[in-house]
Amino acid sequence: MTELLLLADTHLPKRARELSPDVWAAVDRADVVIHAGDWVDISLLDELEGRAKRLIGVWGNNDGSDLRARLPEVARAEVGGIRIAVIHETGAETGRETRADSSFPGVDLLVFGHSHIPWDTTTPGGLRLLNPGSPTDRRRQPRCTMMTATVDDGALRNVTLVTVRRGGDTV
């Protein structure tokens, strides 16, 4: 069994000075941390690389040349038999599933960010789309969020949207 933590749109230090203690505790528990871009400050990448057991990340539209030099626009990995792709932006909500099926053939899970809006759907082709929202900038959402999931016996299970309070505690 492999524990996943999905993050995106951390926007440090613009939206928060640091990640909350509960986000760091989730990093410590996870076997794989996936970050779908908009880190903003390279120091978070350095911290996550030093702390996560395995880190899969991409750059986002708010990430500068220093982050783009170290991260791909699209990352692909296999975790416990699940083929995963990570990208920051998938475009407009309308047509997202069709575009994802077309752009990511052979992928089981696509993790993305950009909108700060949590998302969990499955495309007609069977591709699972997950956006964890943002643990630091809720925008028009009621809460800041991240996601956890488990990969077990080649299947994605226990996908959970975790609410993160601004003060740092999960709800």
From TrEMBL:
Q: Which cofactor does it need?
A: a divalent metal cation
EC number(s) reported in the record: 3.1.4.-
Q: Listed GO molecular functions?
A: hydrolase activity; metal ion binding
* InterPro entries, sorted: Calcineurin-like_PHP_lpxH (IPR024654), Metallo-depent_PP-like (IPR029052), Phosphodiesterase_MJ0936/Vps29 (IPR000979)
**Which residues does the UniProt record annotate as the domain Calcineurin-like phosphoesterase?**
4-153
Which top-level group of life is the source organism from? Bacteria
SUPFAM superfamilies according to UniProt: Metallo-dependent phosphatases (SSF56300)
Q: Keywords of this protein's UniProt record, alphabetized?
A: Metal-binding
Which family is it part of?
Answer: Belongs to the metallophosphoesterase superfamily. YfcE family.
- Protein name in UniProt: Phosphoesterase
Native organism is Glaciihabitans arcticus
